[in-house]
Design brief:
Layout (H helix, E strand, L loop, with lengths): L7 H26 L11 E2 L2 E2 L3 E2 L19 E8 L6 E7 L2 E6 L7 E7 L11
Antiparallel strand pairs: 1-2, 2-3, 4-5, 5-6, 6-7
Length: 128
C-alpha cells in the first residue's frame, strides 16, 4: 500500500492504523526485546507490573516470544502494521542481522513469520 504522506487524510489513516496496532505490538514484542523464552505468558498489568516483573501502565501482557524465537540477534526498532485488506496485525522488528516479521492478529499466540536478511553488514542501527 502506498500513501502520500503529504496528504492529511493519508497521515490520519496511518496514525489511526498505528494507534490500533501499538498496544498489541507492545505486548507481543516487549518481552522479546528482553529475552523471555516462554511462548505464552498472559498476564494483566497489576499495580504497575505484568507477570510480576515487567513494568506496565494500562497495558496487559498477552503473549511473548523469546529472542531465539524471532531470529536471534539484538533488537533495535519495532513497528506495527495492519493489513488494510484483511485487518491482520503484524510486528516489523529491526534486528542486527535483518528485519523480522511477526503475526500478532491473535495477540495471545504471536507467530514468527520469518526474516528479511540485511543486504549489508550487521548493524545496531536498523530503523523501520
Amino acid at each position: 500500500m502506498r500513501m502520500n504522506l503529504n496528504d492529511n487524510n493519508s497521515m490520519n489513516d496511518l496514525t489511526q492504523t498505528l494507534r490500533g496496532a501499538l498496544p498489541k505490538v507492545f505486548t507481543a514484542v516487549l518481552t522479546s526485546a528482553i529475552a523471555i523464552s516462554t511462548a505464552s505468558a498472559q498476564s494483566p498489568c497489576i499495580n504497575g507490573l505484568a507477570a510480576g516483573v515487567y513494568p506496565c501502565e494500562n497495558v496487559d501482557l498477552l503473549g511473548t516470544l523469546g529472542t531465539n524465537q524471532v531470529g536471534g540477534g539484538d533488537m533495535n526498532d519495532i513497528w506495527g502494521w495492519t493489513d488494510p485488506l484483511d485487518g491482520k496485525e503484524y510486528v516489523i522488528l529491526g534486528r542486527t542481522s535483518g528485519t523480522g516479521f511477526i503475526d500478532i492478529s491473535d495477540p495471545t499466540n504471536p507467530i514468527y513469520l520469518g526474516n528479511l536478511n540485511t543486504n549489508t553488514t550487521s548493524s545496531l542501527w536498523r530503523d523501520i
